[in-house]
Structures are given as structure tokens and as C-alpha cells.
Amino acid sequence: MENPFAALLQDTNSPPLNTTSDERATTETLEETFGFTLNKDRRGSLIFLEDLSASFPSGVLNVEVLEHALFERLLLTNSQDVGEAEVFVYLFHCFKKTSAISDVGLREKVEALILRNAVTALKQELKELFEGQDLVKQFYEILKTLELPARDFFEKIYKRFCDDGDTAGTKEPFTMLLKLLHIDIARATPVSFPVFVFEILNSYVSDEFLAGILLDYCQPPSEVGIEYANTLLGAVFSVSVLPKVISGSYEFFQDPLDQASNAAVQSSLWMNTNHIFQDMHAFLLNLLKCGREIRMRTLTWLCNCLKANVDRGKLWNAHVPDFNLSNGNTVTDGFMLNITTVLLRLCHPFCVNIKDGRILKVDPTYCAVSNEDALAKDVHLLDMSKETSLIPHDSEQEERPASSSYNFVTECFFMAHRSFDLSFRVTNDKLVHLNQEMSRIERAYQDVLSQGPMSEIADSIKQRMASELSKYLSIKCAMSEPHFQESLFNFMSASAFWLSQVAVSASYKSNRATSAPIEAKEIVFPLPAEVPDTLKCIPEFVLENIVCFLVFLRRFNPKVFEEQGYERLSPILTFILVYMGSAQYTKNPHLRAHLAEALETLLPYHKEDPVGLNTLGGIQRERLFKEHPHRGEIVAILLDVFVGIEMTGQNVQFEQKFNYRRPMYLVMDYLWAMEEYRLNFVNLAQEAELNMEAVSPPIFLRFINLLINDAIFLLDESLSNMAKLRELQRARDAGEWGNLPPQERAQNMGNLQHTGMLARFDNILGKDTIRTLEYLTSEIKMVFTHSTMVDRVAAMLNYFLLNLVGPNQKNFKVKDFKEYSFDPAATVLDICKIYVNLKESDSFCLAISQDGRSYSPQLFELAEVVLVRIGGGTLIGELQDVSKKVERKAAEYKKHEIAVAEAPDQFLDPIMSTLMSDPVILPSSRQTVDRSTIARHLLSDQTDPFNRAPLSMDQVIPNKELAGEIKKWLDEKKLKL
């Protein structure tokens, strides 16, 4: 018989006594896991499912009962206060508790039930069951917690969807999760970037179908560049120090004049952005490993993004960004820099160590593949075949080399270069222009302060300066992140090594398996006569990218050169010499000139660097010029480029050539101080002396001719502009502009600034040119005093010395010589040194005396007075020797001039109007000129001066008959003296 007191004796916290111990244990476990009970006596902290308990009066919970109980518990969330009211959060809490169930079989069944209910709740058609609950958002909030079970919960829910075979049902909730993630990323900054982002994204790349959902969601609605920034991946790439939208505000460096604050902000931003893109790289790498189809789709997304934003690389984008309406159709600088960062990290394995040869797997023919052939050859970066290549090709007639397919290393290499071209190069241009603009603002600020109390205007200019400085610091911060800079240096050094190897690799037949160099070869100068056809495939921007990066480091971050060291610098110098040294390898003269600028970046020090810029010195770069195996080629190649940018067929704009030559002067100045290189110059000069009238003029002779041309032009322009400046400043200071209309007054001010800018440019280059002539003439004499050169050298020196020490010198006195880089004292010293250097030459001293425009016996006396004043007294004695010798030569020539004064017109050179000593006939125009005259002309222009027909010295015809007549006439005159 049942004990009537059994109910009193029974533990009210346990299932009824008429159940087995296993049933009691299971019931307790399930109650603990799900937080509900069917036993009203145990309601306490548990929810009592009253309706369901009527159907199961025993109060026992098992798997079968649980299925009904759990569903009822979920429905209660809409009507009662039942503790955790959010369905998905409740299910996740239950899921976490299953780990405590020791019975494996029971645990698996319970977990399956939870997951089935979770999947059911996420399905679109059943959402009305849980009205008012955003189940996907609850799911998302769970994932954001980064709890260890959350990732497992995500994966098992997805697997349950897959087991149900409901493809459409799977896509919708997992796409909704991405939308919520997208919103959070879009709001993020480098400082506030959520830590959970990549945990969630990496959950998607664990399975190919999930990765496909992610890529589907990331597809832009159109191929307009800015649309890529509006995708989820684009939102990650947009997280930057720089604004997320074109013309957006700059959030950081709000107190730009506080250096300590700037350093702290920069350090924090660098740390955060490095972490973000370290994670982004790992995520992208996982995506690329997630099956072939996902890999191809990922590469297509990246490459199409680059293609859609190609307008960023247009010249006007950097020069007039605020007025260019199409800028709104492309992504921002921050976006493109970030995508470059990730691509560089993908390139790291084959760039970090060039000795392992992996960079040599890059196939140089990749960019020659047309869009039509791209798909068949696994090429995703489209439109590359339209880019200008190192060696021109006839796109319609000529078939460029191509391989049958291309590997990931090749594609990654060219993607990174294309991305750099559209990001770093463009942003660097903006940084340089911003730097120049800040200098102009600072000068304007100083001008305002110097004119007395104008506090409102001064404050306005100061605020503008602070705003521009904030922008400058932000851009420089984004471009200078240390890990980014290291990746870039590895990449550019490896690219330089690869390009050098391509240059010495044999040409390849089309449709070979690969055209990559594969094995490293020794670089030997002179380079092979056969130029590889593969250079017809490599875009010029690959070389430009290397130059751009080196110039950036030189201007803004030179310590990186020293940090990277000689081993990484050495391939860069080799590359520069290979492609700068011959138009056969680099047809574009502008590009060769840019390579000369890259050579200048490798100098160990620069005289004009601000204090503190080069904190690590220049030991590693100095090793380049002392130890590099091809250093003996530097001087000859440098002179070849100097000449090449002006010679026929290699012409550049007249003004542009001076910009190109400035870095060349700096390199030559550095090299001349080293005996090894000085001997290189002297040897080239000696070769020129032996071949002054050769068919092809020696390179040193052509170099000196152009150097003199430049000196004449630049110094003349310099003095002219300084005279204009003086007049403009005088009119302004005298108040002559005060009564003018505002527009005319502004026009005069603009004219003053423009003239000042031109004067500064000419002064700097003119000083460099004269300085170069001075040290060259200290060791090299004959070339400068040869008949083809000596008259021009003497006339140039006389003209400029007279202007600088004669009565006209007051015309060039302006306010603040330093602002316009005008240093007449240094120029006078250099000119006087050149006189002294060449004083032993009789022809030079005679040429000085025969310059009727500027020379007079008083010229050197005027120079002596100035030398005493500017600290050049040590030169006076030697200059007096020059003066005496010139006077002697003048007297000797006077007798000769009397003898030839009555020379017949046919004996006179038609260009110089001087008596010919070696007349020659020009084959095309049939004109007769003196050999020295035409030889000098052909140094600069290889055409007949009378009809512009092509001409070289081997084509001129000696006029022996006329030469005999001249000699006879001279002999007769001498007899009469």
C-alpha cells in the first residue's frame, strides 16, 4: 500500500518518487539546462510550464517531452515575464549549458533540439511565431560577445541549415548578419574598430558556401569605383586615418602645433591600423584558400575594384582634386592605401628574401594579355594591355609574348603595383602639393606680421595653416606606418631585382608555359645587345612606382634607407643603372630622367635637409657608392641621361629638363668629392679630347656643351627675374599699388609671387650649374678650351661676371636674397675660380679678350673689389695673373685682326662671321661653314642649321679649294705686315 505520508516525506526539489533514478537525473539535468519544469513544486527559480504539465502530470522531462516543452517556453517570451525574453539569447544560453551534460547521447540530442529550434526561428516563413523579436540581431549580438561557444553555435546552426537542404533559407539570415556587421564597420574608426569584426568574418570563410554568401553580399551594384567603398569589404578598407568620403573632415591631429600630442596620436593610430590590417590580411588569405571558385571571385573583386577606380591615377586628380567632379566616383585615398597594405602583405612571402628566387616566378608578360584572353589564362586584372610599356609596341601589328597561364605570384605582384599606382603615388603627389601650399601660407603669414598690427588677417591665416597642417600630418601618418613602409621597401627592392633579371633574360617565344626569369643571372655591363621582347609587356608604372617610393622616403622618411640596409638597397641601384643607362631598355626619356632622380635619393646625405630629418645618418647608402659592384657605371650613365633628355628624338619640354637635371647635379656634386668617381669623369674627358670631331660626339663633350647652354640660359633668366622683382617690390613699398582697383592690386601681388617663384627656381639651378662647371674645370681643361667650346665659355663668364660686379649689380638687389635663393657672392666666387682653373690655356685667355660684348680691361678690377668684400681675397692674386695674360693675348690678336680685317665675305663663316680656318661643305644645303662652328652646333642639334635636314660630322665635305685660298690670302697678308 502507498504510504499516505509519502508526499510529506518527499524532497520537493526532486522529481516524484515514482520515477526511476535515471529519469530523475535526466529531469534535473534538463531543468538546469533549460530553466523550466513541469513540476509545480519546483517552480522556484525555474519556470513552471503549467499548460504542458497537465499533459505530463508526472513532471518528468525527457527528450520526447522536451521537444514540446522547449517550443512552449519559446512562445512564452512573447507574453510573460519569463526571465530571458529574447529567443535567440535564451537558446544560446541553453546551448552553452549543454557542455555540462555528462551523458554524451543525451547531450547530442539536446543540442540537436536547440539547434533545430534556432534554425526554425531564423526561417522567414516562421517569423510571425516570435513577433516583435529581431532574431538575427540577437544572433549577431551573441557573436559580438566573442564567447568561445558563440563560434561553435554559429557553425552548428549553419550546418543544421545545410542538413535541411534549405539553400534559400540559409542565405537570408546569414546575409542579414552581414548587414548588421556592415553597419558597425561603417561607423568604425581606427581607434574604435570593433574587435569582433574579423571573428565573425572568419566564421564565413570556414565554408565555401558561406564564403559565397559573403562575396554575394559584397558585390557592388555597379562598376562605379565609389560603390566598392559601400560594400562590407569596402567598409573595412575605408577604416583609415584619412576621411571616409571625398572632401571629408580630418578627425585626428586636431592640435597640430603640439608636437608631443602629435607623436602620441600617431603612435596610437599606427598600432591600431597595423592590428586591423594584420587581421584583414589573415581573413583575405583564408578567403583565397576557401576553394578555387571563391579564390577566383575574390581576385575578381579586388581586380575589378582597381579597374573601377582607375580615374584616381589621372594627372588632374592630384593637381585639382577639389574641382574635379569625377573624384566623387572613386574611392578615397585611405581606402586605396589600405587595399595596397593588404596586397603587400600577400606579396610578403615572395618579396621578403630575394635570394630564395620566388620573386623570379613573376611572369613579365602578364600585362600584355588582352581582356578577351584574360579568362582563359586566369588573368583577373583587366585593361593592363592598354598601359604604356617600357618599350613601345604596335598594338595592331605586333604580337607581344604571352604565356599559356599565370600563377598567383604574378597576379599578386601586378595587383600590388597597380594598387600602389592608384594609391600611394596619387596620395604622395597630394602630400607634396600640400607641403608646398603650407610653405606659401607660412610666407604669407610672415608677410602679414611684417606689415604691422593686422591681427584678424594674421589669425585667419594661422587657422588656415593649422587646418592644412592637420591634413598634412594625417596623410603623412597614413603613408608612413612602419609595417606598411617595411612591406613597401621589401616589395620595391624585390621588384627592382626582378626587373634587372628580366632585362638580362633571353626573349621568349609566345605561348610558352611561362616567360618568368626563373633563375637569377649575373648582371654584366654593357647589357646584352638583344633586348628582351618581354619589356614590351611591362607597364611603365611599375618603374614609376619604385621611383615614387624612393622619392617619398628621401623627402619624408630617409631613416628607412638605413634601417633596411645595404643588402636591400643594392638591387635598387642595379635596377636604376640598368634602366637609366639605355633608351633601348627604357624608351621614355621622362622615365629615364625620373630614374636619375631615384639615384639622387640614394645619396647618403643632402645639404638642404632640415635638421633632424636624417636621424640615422647615411652609412648604408654610402656603402652603395663605395662597394656596389656596378658603381663604375654610374658616371657614364648619368651623363648619358643628362644628354639624352635633350638630344634629337629624346626631347622633353624646355622647362621640364631643368627639373630633371637638378637631382643629377646633386649626384655629380657628391660623386666628384670621391677620387674613384673623379677619375671616371677625367677618363671620359680624355676620351672626348681624343674624339672631339668624331662622327658621334663623345658623351662628355655633349654633356659639357649642354651644361654651358644651361648656365647661359639659367643665369640670364635669373638676373632678368631678379631685376623684375626689384621693380615690383619698389612699386609695392612706395605705395604705388595702394590706389589701384582691388583686382589689379591682386594681379600685381600674384605677379610678384610668380616672378619670385621663377627667380628662385632659376637661381637654384643656375647656382648648381656654375658650381658643376667650377669643379669640373679644376681637373679638366682641354674640353673647355677647345675651339668648339672656348668662345662660348669665355663669353658666358664675362657676361655674368660683368653683371654681378659691374655697375648693373644694384639692379638685382631685392629684399631677402635668401627667400629667392639668390647668392651672387657664391656665383662670383665660382666664376672667378673657373677663370683661374683655365688660365693656363692661351685659347681661353684670347677668347676672353675677344668678347666684345662684356669684356673690358676693367672687368677683373671690378671683380677684385667685390672679392675683397665677399671674402674671396685669396683669389685676387691668381685673378690678376689671368688679367695680365688676357691683355697680352689681346695685344697679339690686335695685330692679327688688322691683317684679316679686309677678308673677302666668302672667307667668313656665315654663322659666326669669323675667318674660317677649316671650311667644310654641308651636303644638304651646300652651305660652307667652319668645321668648329658646325661641330659645336651638332653637339646640341644634329641637323643642318640652314634647312633642318639630318646631319652628322662624317657627312660634311672638306672644302679644300677654299681652305687653300684662305691660307694663300693669309700668307700674303703676313708678308705685308
Automatic annotation (TrEMBL):
It is found in: Cytoplasm. Keywords: Acetylation, Cytoplasm, Transferase, Ubl conjugation pathway. Signal peptide: none annotated. It catalyses: S-ubiquitinyl-[E2 ubiquitin-conjugating enzyme]-L-cysteine + [acceptor protein]-L-lysine = [E2 ubiquitin-conjugating enzyme]-L-cysteine + N(6)-ubiquitinyl-[acceptor protein]-L-lysine. Pathway: Protein modification; protein ubiquitination. Residues 902-976 form the U-box domain. InterPro entries: Ub_conjug_fac_E4_core, UBE4, Ubox_domain, Znf_RING/FYVE/PHD. Its EC number is 2.3.2.27. It is an enzyme of class 2 (transferase). GO terms for molecular function: ubiquitin-ubiquitin ligase activity. SUPFAM superfamilies: RING/U-box (SSF57850). One of its GO terms (biological process) is protein polyubiquitination. PROSITE patterns: U_BOX. It comes from the Eukaryota. It holds the Pfam family Ufd2P_core. Ubiquitin-protein ligase that probably functions as an E3 ligase in conjunction with specific E1 and E2 ligases. May also function as an E4 ligase mediating the assembly of polyubiquitin chains on substrates ubiquitinated by another E3 ubiquitin ligase. Mediates 'Lys-48'-linked polyubiquitination of substrates. Belongs to the ubiquitin conjugation factor E4 family. This is Ubiquitin conjugation factor E4 A.
